[in-house]
Amino acid sequence: MIRVVVVDDEPMVCAHLRTILGSAADIEVVAQAQDGAEAVEAVVRHRPRVVLMDLRMPGVDGLTAIERIAKLPEPPAVVALTTFDADTYVIRALRAGAAGFLVKSTPPEDLIGLVRVAADGHTVLSPEAAQRLVAMSADGRRRGDDARRKTDGLTERETDVLACLGEGLSNADIAVRLHLAEATVKSYVSRMLVKLDCANRTQAGLLAHEAGLVKR
């Protein structure tokens, strides 16, 4: 069972998300919160696998909550929720440790599938969305230079794996594409996260876009 915490300052949004996710046999919404402080408390109390986090809330906002949750032992996957498909605030959320982001208008059937993807530890961020986010960054050129310096130290195979992360591929998909064992891919990913100083796969994937490793 995938345990989920829903965070939004609009009760109707929380109720809507709870209804959608509750229709899936393998998903349980264990708590909902209306600001970031409540969200952190709910995560500590209920230990969910996934948190759907609104970013713009009064009081403690979603970004601050993501930063706090990322520092917890064995933190859940936090997926940022936004009303925009390319929100500059989302960039900060991803760098703070979010596992990806979803637009609130995501169709119900897609939302359920994407929650399952996040629960499995995969990136919830389309290549198109990542490209828009990188392009929106005010200091995108500097970040691109920094990203290329970081990735220059990777081996050719590590670079291939990183590019696949930028496309949002799972370990199984990467293994098929690169003709590797899935366990080998997992090992590559773990080493790269340390080498690139990335907190999770999503940050690594965004780095791949900034470094120009993902074909547009």
State the low-pLDDT regions, or none: none
How helical, in percent, are the residues?
A: 40-55%
Helix-strand makeup class: alpha/beta
The biggest beta sheet is recorded as:
5 strands, parallel
Overall geometry comes to globular
Computed Rg:
17 Å
Strand percentage: 5-15%
Q: What count of helical segments does DSSP give?
A: 11
Compute the separation of the termini in Å: 36 Å
Task: Please state the average pLDDT score.
Answer: 85
Short description:
With 216 residues, this protein is an alpha/beta fold.
Write the layout of secondary structure elements.
Blueprint: E1 2-7, H1 11-22, E2 27-33, H2 36-46, E3 50-54, H3 62-70, E4 77-82, H4 88-96, E5 100-103, H5 108-119, H6 127-136, H7 140-151, H8 156-166, H9 171-178, H10 182-195, H11 201-210
Parallel strand pairs: 1-2, 1-3, 3-4, 4-5
Helix pairs in contact: 2-3, 3-4, 6-11, 7-11, 8-11, 9-10
